[in-house]
Amino acid sequence: MEKKRTEEDWRNLHERVACAILNGRCANEYFSNMSMESLIDDAIWGADDFVEKLREREEKQ
Question: For residues 31 and 38, what is the distance between their CA atoms, to the nearest angstrom?
């Protein structure tokens, strides 16, 4: 049986996903006209969405 993720695991995953999104956005010239605030909001929103959907998927299993 698989180990369930703790709240700390979910927070760490959220942080890593947000950082990955920021890295990708900052490395892409297409996003160079976005403000840092917009980039951060985008990364947080994306991490929220990712973690929410992953939690739902794991609960179904």
Answer: 10
